[in-house]
Amino acid sequence: MDLRRDALQILKETSRTFYIPISILPTGLQEAVASAYLCMRAIDEIEDHPELDNPTKAKILRTISLTLQAGVDGFAVDAFSLGLNGYENILPEVTLGIREWSILAPEAIAPRIWDATAAMADRMAHWAEINWKISTESDLDRYTFGVAGAVGLLLSDLWAWYDGTQTNRTQAIGFGRGLQAVNILRNHTEDLKRGVDFYPEGWTAANMHEYARRNLALADAYTQSLAAGPALDFCQIPLTLAHGTLDALANGKEKLSRNDVLALLKQFIDVNIKAS
Q1: Predicted TM-score (pTM) of this structure
Q2: Which of 78, 142, 186, 220 lies 20 to 30 A from 271 at CA?
Q3: Burial of 162 per CB tally in 10 Å (0-12, 13-18, 19+)
């Protein structure tokens, strides 16, 4: 089995935003970032699953967290079976493959990814138990840190591990929060249909737009501080798409069309990749 090839195929099927930036990363860093993305996508699919009730989501997420915390030099073939047993027919392939994604990263950095995924799974379990109740901006900050800002911190650790790249950790959190805030805006109507509202009490779309732009300003600063190299190449693409999505939403569109996405990616590639 070619684990790297399988991971990139699943990545291509699950994320139009992150497939391209991960696919252009150099060997070693590519496996690390792909491992992190797919592990976190695996638990995200549990958090968002339409057929699981909240207590079940919390139970599965905490079991996965405990399994990850027990990792030493990898995981037994059946290590995650206890948590996923009985749900194989309703959980997506990316979730069922979490063991494979967890061992994809190079041995020297894999435990950092297990740690980040375990912590995120615990936080997701908490939010599932309280039905993602967001009352205040502080609640929103807690949620966006737990599922996205912490990913920014992990990415900073991956850049430093790979080639010594140093970053501002506050800006790294803003990078994650900004992308998540755009997702919240884009999915707001759909979330309301399933009984979840990520807007703090009294907030309108205008408030969330302001929150997103404030955090994307930190994301811009984070990205602009990066020297030419794989970290910059990776960060620019999702940030470009986030800004484009926010502008589209502000202009009354529900989301970026496929053509919009392709146009933004082409613009990025023409300006950044070919110029390098």
Answers
A1: 0.93
A2: 186
A3: buried
